[in-house]
Specification:
single chain; alpha+beta; Beta-Lactamase; two-stranded antiparallel sheet; 16 helices; 9 strands; about 55% helix; elongated
């Protein structure tokens, strides 16, 4: 009980909590301008109805709360957004069916984004634990080897498997004796030689950690494969530690998000932590004239809104910008 109270107090003292509150307050005013401030807002903007823009705007605090405060913050923000949108959609809107569909669409996108953030955090935590294990002394690390949910292998520079954990054996459906000493590409891929994209092969060439996201048809699963080199005293690679993480749920969630975004009549885009555009939907192409082929994989999302390069609101949210910095760019207009 005391721990929960401390968590609540810590959240309330966080300025980012109050930024979320402020963003929702703006959303309430946008939804009910006549009732709260007696102002008649324009009926459309950028080719979209005002009410559509108001609902899409609520994705800003939803995504920000999920990014900053995790899955609980995201769920709470979804509930708040729904409480803001429903009264207008049901009681005030002249097209309640259309308003409900748009409101459900906003909530659906918010749910998927929350799940993506949650899975990303889980993935980062697994990476952190795995990296810590790799750096630990071998005798301490060995006890945790078989406890990992991810598949882990020890491979020599000739691609022979020296060790594999229980998760790997369960995936392959083989005993340890059937795997140890065999070529990794024969056991894992069913091929006669290493593939060109093989992380171990890349690591041998570069002496850097090799990585690959790969769909393995044999298991009907997506894997993120990371190959970390182990060097001898002369700086030569003698072994690899390969970590195979099942990212099937993440990939399918990303595919679901892409379908939702591209099929939406609402203009929208998505960026990753590096500010690279990962989604640019058809509606936004039509609105801005910028094709997704031009923008995807770049950090040029500003071209849709400004003549010169500058952060858009999504960039500021990803960076965890303070309320003062957002105010400096938007001067109360966000």
């Amino acid at each position: 009980m005391a721990l929960q109270r401390d968590t609540v107090l810590r959240t309330i003292r966080d300025y980012r909590f109050w930024l979320v509150v402020a963003l929702f307050a703006v959303g309430i005013i946008l939804h009910y301008p006549q009732h709260l401030v007696g102002i008649e807002a324009p009926s459309s903007l950028l080719g979209l109805t005002r009410h559509t823009i108001e609902r899409v705007y609520l994705l800003v605090p939803i995504i920000y709360a999920s990014f900053i405060f995790g899955i609980r913050g995201g769920i709470t923000s979804l509930a708040v957004a729904l409480a803001i949108m429903l009264p207008r959609a049901i009681l005030i809107s002249v097209s309640p069916d259309e308003a409900l569909v748009e409101s459900i669409g906003v909530i659906a996108i918010g749910v998927v984004v929350n799940l993506l953030f949650h899975m990303r955090r889980r993935e980062q935590e697994r990476i952190r634990v795995s990296d810590a294990l790799l750096k630990a002394e071998e005798e301490k690390w060995r006890g945790s080897f078989n406890a990992l949910e991810d598949v882990m292998l020890i491979i020599d520079r000739d691609y022979n498997i020296e060790n594999i954990n229980d998760s790997g054996l369960a995936l392959l459906g083989k005993s340890r004796d059937e795997v140890i000493g065999k070529k990794c590409y024969q056991i894992l891929r069913g091929t006669k030689c290493p593939q060109e994209e093989c992380p171990c092969r890349k690591t041998l060439e570069t002496k850097q950690v090799g990585s690959l996201d790969h769909y393995e048809a044999r298991f009907d699963r997506f894997f993120s494969i990371k190959s970390s080199p182990i060097f001898d005293e002369n700086g030569e690679i003698v072994k690899f530690v390969d970590l195979m993480r099942d990212i099937t749920e993440l990939k399918r969630a990303e595919e679901m998000l892409a379908k939702i975004i591209d099929g939406s009549s609402i203009s929208m885009f998505v960026i990753d932590r590096a500010h690279k555009v990962t989604h640019w939907n058809t509606a936004l192409e039509a609105l801005t004239g910028l094709k997704r082929e031009e923008i995807m994989g770049t950090n040029e999302q500003w071209r849709a809104f400004y003549a010169e390069k500058r952060p858009v609101l999504a960039d500021l949210i990803v960076d965890g910008a303070s309320a003062e910095e957002i105010e400096r760019y938007y001067q109360g207009k966000c």
